[in-house]
Design goal:
Length: 139
């Protein structure tokens, strides 16, 4: 079903960093849909983004503990991609009034960032994302 990903080379890392930037932009569009009360369309688009970015079913990843997710995703860049997706899921859940689900997703995203940071230095985009997570968790 799942297998552990091997550490990628520099080309894959550059590609994943670009994917992260694109993902953040796509999620901003999804969250705009959510703010316009188009929740189902926003969730559908987020699932499509997740499948495209991770090349995995994010729903299955959601059923695993954080350590297992980290093993499957492999690289720090892929951990960060999934963390951004979780943050977006949290914001969609909060827009629907699902505060506990939102908090669970934010905590999970924060743990994934911590695991990614332990494997690789944090870039500026990741620092901004983590600051945003901390802000959302403090609310």
């Amino acid at each position: 079903m799942f297998r552990q990903r091997e550490e990628g080379g520099e080309v894959e890392k550059d590609f994943l960093k670009k994917q992260l930037q694109k993902l953040v932009q796509a999620i901003q569009r999804v969250l705009k849909l959510s703010s316009d009360q188009q929740h189902q369309q926003a969730e559908d688009e987020l699932q499509q983004i997740a499948a495209t970015s991770l090349k995995l079913d994010a729903t299955r990843l959601g059923s695993l503990d954080v350590a297992s997710c980290a093993m499957i995703l492999g690289t720090p860049e892929r951990l960060r991609l999934y963390a951004v997706i979780l943050r977006a899921e949290a914001e969609l859940a909060r827009a629907r009034g699902q505060t506990q689900r939102a908090r669970d997703r934010l905590v999970r995203a924060q743990k994934l960032h911590q695991l990614a940071d332990a494997r690789s230095p944090t870039d500026e985009l990741s620092k901004q994302e983590q600051a945003h997570l901390a802000d959302l968790l403090s609310r």
